[in-house]
Amino acid sequence: MHTDAVHQSQFVVLNESTTPVLSRLSFHAAEPFAVTVAFRTERGRWVEWTFARELLVTGLTEPSGIGDVRVRPDLSEDEALLTIEIESPDGYASFEMEREDIENFIGASLELVPLGTESEHFDVDTLIEEITNV
Fold it and tell me: Rounded to an integer, what distance in angstroms lies between the CA atom of residue 58 and that of residue 33?
């Protein structure tokens, strides 16, 4: 079976809490520049953030991101973790995710769309149609 998407779920630590939060990472070949991370809230709803896949790739080895989403390895305390920080006018959250899980997710996304070939998979005409038909 062939798929054009990668999905992965895991529990993450939110703001150093002792209670883990269910998260979901998603990548779709039709949107090759982006990944989406979603976090399940206590009411069973999902809060989603979409950001550049390259930011996640770079964040495995060095701090990346200067905007609402920042990714960095947590080498000071536990190199098995990756930290994702999300900030908006509504608040701030810091998530610790298993580095190996992120590496597996990125590896699967790179099998679908290798870095540097994203524009070959991106349908700009469809995007323009979506934007203009709102």
Answer: 13
Spatial strand order of the sheet with 91-98 comes to: 46-52, 34-40, 20-28, 5-14, 91-98, 81-88, 69-73
Find the domain containing 114 and state its range.
5-132
What is d(CA 32, CA 29) in angstroms, rounded to the nearest whole number? 5
CA distances from 19 to 82, 101, 131 (A): 17, 19, 40
Provide the 8-state DSSP code for 75. Answer: T
Confidence check: pLDDT of 49 > 80? yes
The number of domains in the chain is: 1
CATH value at residue 24: 2.30.31.20
pTM of the model: 0.78
Chain position carrying tokens 């610790």: 96
